[in-house]
Amino acid sequence: MTGRIHIDLFTTLDGVAQAPGGPDEDTDGGFAFGGWQAPLIDDTDGAQIAEGIHAMDALILGRRTYDIFAGYWPHHLEGPDADIARKFDAIPKYVASRGAPELTWRDSHLLGRDLAAEMGVLRERHREIHVIGSIDFARTLVADGLFDQLNLWVYPIVLGPGKRLFTADGPPLSLELLSAAAPSRKGTVLLRYGPTGSAPATGDMSRTDQSAIG
After folding, report:
1. Exposure letters 88-113 (e unless 16+ CB within 10 A, then b)
2. Residue 213: is its pLDDT beyond 60?
3. What pTM was computed for the model?
4. Which terminus, N or C, of the chain has the lesser number of Cβ atoms within 10 Å?
5. CA nearest 142: which of 197, 99, 93, 92?
6. What is the mean pLDDT of residues 60-80?
């Protein structure tokens, strides 16, 4: 078995992926828009997110996102969020951290420093592995080509400053669009990308056959 690694991120039109879930999720840099996703989510993207969660058999989180999840989901095994809470509780959870945190949530494991080797082990152990949020860790996986699918929910909002997956000093990448879902009622679009393994190509528009334009 060779499993696939998915990265799931919620982003604005200008690429901000910081603190979509709540005001106190991540205030680094004085970020003032924590919880920006909440007014924009509806049944369409909610169902897409739930579908991805139910398909996964392992979860990878950065340390900050792990602390948020571990502080919330184990306490919601009953009630309206029970299906998601029980799914997260039941599957193995792997944590990327430079330190040695105490991982108290059931079936939680600290990843080693050699990410390429660790991702290889997880691919052999699991069928569908998802990284949720965890921007810094996701950025490393993308830069090193250690992922199979990038799932971007793009919301119709612009925030300006904030943490992004793709930064100005990041490596150049070429991605392949795998699919684009129909937009939600509130204008959110799910875009699925895969790595091509090649650098971005360049050209010269002045030498392009103009008949191919328009």
Report:
1. bbebbbbbbbeeeeebebeebeebee
2. no
3. 0.92
4. C
5. 197
6. 94
Question: Could you give the 3-state DSSP secondary structure of residue 16?
Answer: strand
d(CA 131, CA 5): 8
Q: Contact at 8 Å (CB) between 190 and 48?
A: yes
| Short-list 43, 44, 39, 26, CA closest to 157 | 39
Reported in sequence order, the residue ranges of the chain that DSSP labels E, i.e. its strands, are 4-12, 58-62, 93-96, 108-110, 128-132, 149-155, 175-180, 189-195
Tokens standing for residue 177: 């669009």
Give the residues across from 195 on adjacent strands.
175
**pLDDT tens for each residue of 93-145:** 999 998 888 899 999 999 999 999 999 999 999 999 999 989 999 999 999 99
Which amino acid makes up residue 90? A
For residues 36 and 11, give the distance between their C-alpha atoms in angstroms, rounded to a whole number: 10
Q: Which of 112, 71, 66 is nearest to 93 (CA)?
A: 66
pLDDT at site 123? 96
User: What SS3 state is found at 78?
Assistant: coil
Domains of the chain, each with CATH number or no CATH = 4-198 (3.40.430.10)
Query: Which pLDDT score, from 0 to 100, does residue 89 have?
Result: 96
Tokens 């897409």, residue located: 48
